[in-house]
Specification:
The complex is a heterodimer of chains A (136) and B (380). Helices cover 6% and strands 36% of the residues of chain A. By secondary structure, chain A is mainly beta. A 5-stranded antiparallel β-sheet of chain A has the order 6-5-4-7-8. Chain A has a 3-stranded antiparallel β-sheet with strand order 2-1-3. In chain A, a hairpin with a 6-residue loop joins strand 1 and strand 2. The N and C termini of chain A lie far apart (35 Å). With 380 residues, chain B is an alpha/beta fold. Helices cover 32% and strands 18% of the residues of chain B. In chain B, helix 1 (25-40) packs across helix 2. Chain B has one domain (6-113, 204-376): Thiolase/Chalcone synthase (Peroxisomal Thiolase, Chain A, domain 1, 3-Layer(aba) Sandwich), CATH 3.40.47.10. In chain B, strand 2, helix 2 and strand 3 (70-72) form a beta-alpha-beta unit. Chain B contains 13 helices and 11 strands. The chains are: A mainly beta (136), B alpha/beta (380). The A-B interface holds A 4-10, 13, 17, 39-40, 65-74, 77, 81-82, 84-86, 94-98, 106, 111, 128 and B 120-122, 124, 126-135, 139-140, 142-148, 150, 191-197, 241, 243-244, 248. Strand 4 of chain A pairs antiparallel with strand 5 (192-195) of chain B. Bound molecules: zinc ion (ZN). Zinc ion is lined by residues 30, 32-33, 35, 45, 47-48, 50 of chain A.
Chain lengths: 136, 380
């Protein structure tokens, strides 16, 4: 199996990937307006254009917003079908991820099910943020 | 733009369509361009504006022997050609050039001289989407759909109906890739590509191309073909990442582009005799009918099931068979424009009797961009 396709951080996204490595899902928000949290990372507020933004550790909670189950796995993703999901984070932004510790079936993957983030180290630098069903 | 100030005077697709292993990408552009020039009786030296996507307008101009005073390389995916039409209209009206050639050519199936589907690992999509396993449009364009179905109360059967009815149109088109009738059960039972999408809910992968030639409405009267006038235009873009689409149940780019095109053309929905909505996948006509305002949110699936868009219906839609059954080389917008022009000229294989106004609405990327062109065949 070829190595998994991994992100190459840029100066503007470094804090996010450092956060994943440290076990934190880092979002950004504006301190000039109440534009709320945004994603993907950028050093200014997409609502008002202010550069006065801060990084913070998000809750890591969200719900399953939408997904497909890829029946023809990408070579670096193994041989079994897998869901490519979009999670709606509690803080508002949407992000693409995979749902782990859960069967990759329509029956198990119900829209709006509560999820929580979990990080999986891929190498010394990159940990990917995945989501798993909230237990209990 | 000023209504009916610009017209399409030349329009043609590649000589062959479907599987063309003996022609490269630029060769498909050229074949379509030569056919469009023959259609309107022009030579390369008569063209002073070029626009294309996929390849550079420099490639096109040099290959065709054109020395342009206007070049547009807008490349926002499959609807780029709608944007080219819009920009060409503005350019001609502003006096930047007189006659614009717009081409498309793609070796989607045979991959002769074609590039790949790659995202730099440092791009936003490379960082925040690609690590999670998407494999091109069938696993990306489809991601919002489960949310859309749930919000609207639609089902996967509703997606299947889109494919079934477009196959009815394709059956009337001798150049369509697939012409045999299909049922909802056939669509649902086809190979699963990316749940809930089966193969028959996904577009074809073929080779082909098309070209358009535009000039001022005043000059258009002197050409051999019936001029097809541009009544209104729209365009917009939203996001390069489908996961960041603002609303999974509605395309902002569709809404903005469609509204602008209706405003410019001064028409109402009931004036529209013929409609093309770029259907890379079966959900797009549903989003398009809602976002362009032909149906209220939640009514598009019933509208299609009720055969309003089918042969004999009140709003004939994707009458060439669409990307699902006619052809899809990768950037299908050109073929939607070609079918609108054929319908306005009155020469389409599945001609809508008496059609006077046609809309071609395109999508680029995965809900990334949109362009809308309103055509009329009535002289100003
Ligand atoms: Zn702000």
């Amino acid at each position: 199996m070829p190595p998994r396709m991994l992100p190459e951080p840029t100066p503007e996204t470094r804090h996010f990937w450092d956060g994943c490595k440290a076990g934190e899902l880092r979002l950004q928000r504006c301190t000039d307006c109440d534009g709320g949290s945004y994603f993907p990372p950028r050093p200014f507020c997409p609502k008002c254009g202010s550069r006065k933004v801060e990084n913070y550790a998000a809750s890591g909670k969200g719900v399953l917003w939408s997904y497909v189950i890829n029946m023809r796995p990408r070579p670096d993703m193994g041989t079994e079908p897998y869901a490519i999901a979009v999670v709606k984070l509690a803080e508002g932004p949407q992000m693409m991820s995979n749902i782990v510790n859960c069967p990759q079936t329509p029956e198990a993957l119900q829209l709006d099910m509560p999820l929580t983030v979990t990080f999986a180290a891929q190498n010394d630098d990159i940990s990917l943020p995945f989501f798993e069903p909230v237990k209990g | 733009m000023k209504q009916k100030s610009i017209a399409v005077v030349g329009a043609a697709e590649t000589t062959k369509m479907g599987k063309i292993p003996d022609v490269s990408v630029i060769g498909l552009h050229a074949d379509a361009a030569l056919n469009a020039m023959a259609d309107c009786g022009l030579k390369p030296s008569d063209i002073d504006g070029v626009a294309t996507a996929g390849i550079s307008p420099v490639d096109l101009a040099h290959y065709m022997g054109i020395t342009p005073t206007y070049a547009d390389g807008t490349s926002v995916g499959g609807c780029s050609f709608m944007l080219h039409v819009r920009h060409a209209a503005a350019a001609i009206n502003e006096g930047l050039c007189n006659t614009v050639l717009i081409t498309h050519g793609e070796s989607g199936r045979s991959r002769v001289g074609a590039g790949g589907f790659a995202r730099a690992a440092s791009s936003l999509a490379g960082q925040f989407e690609m690590p999670f396993g998407p494999m091109g449009p069938p696993t990306m364009f489809t991601i919002p759909v489960l949310r859309y179905l749930k919000a609207r109360g639609y089902t996967v059967e509703d997606l299947a109906h889109v494919a079934v009815i477009q196959r009815e149109w394709a059956a009337m088109n001798p150049r369509a890739s697939f012409k045999d009738p299909i049922t909802v059960a056939d669509v649902l039972g086809a190979d699963m590509i990316a749940w809930p999408f089966t193969k028959l809910m996904c577009c074809l992968v073929t080779d082909g191309g098309g070209a358009l030639i535009l000039t001022s409405a005043e000059r258009a009267k002197d050409f051999p073909q019936k001029p097809v006038y541009i009544l209104g235009t729209g365009e917009s873009v939203e996001t390069p990442m489908v996961s960041q689409m603002e609303d999974f149940t509605s395309s902002k780019a569709f809404r903005v582009s469609g509204k602008k095109a209706f405003e410019e053309s001064g028409i109402s929905h009931s004036d529209v005799d013929h409609l093309m909505i770029y259907d890379a996948f079966a959900h797009l006509p549903l989003y398009g009918l809602e976002d362009l305002g032909f149906c209220k949110p939640g009514e598009a699936a019933g509208f299609i099931r009720g055969r309003n868009t089918a042969p004999g219906g009140k709003l004939p839609l994707n009458t060439n068979g669409g990307g699902l059954s006619y052809m899809h080389s990768g950037m299908y917008g050109m073929y939607a424009l070609q079918e609108s022009v054929r319908q306005m000229r009155g020469i389409a294989p599945a001609q809508v009797p008496g059609a006077k106004i046609s809309i071609a609405h395109g999508v680029g990327g995965m809900f990334a961009a949109s362009g809308t062109i309103v055509f009329s065949n009535e002289a100003p």
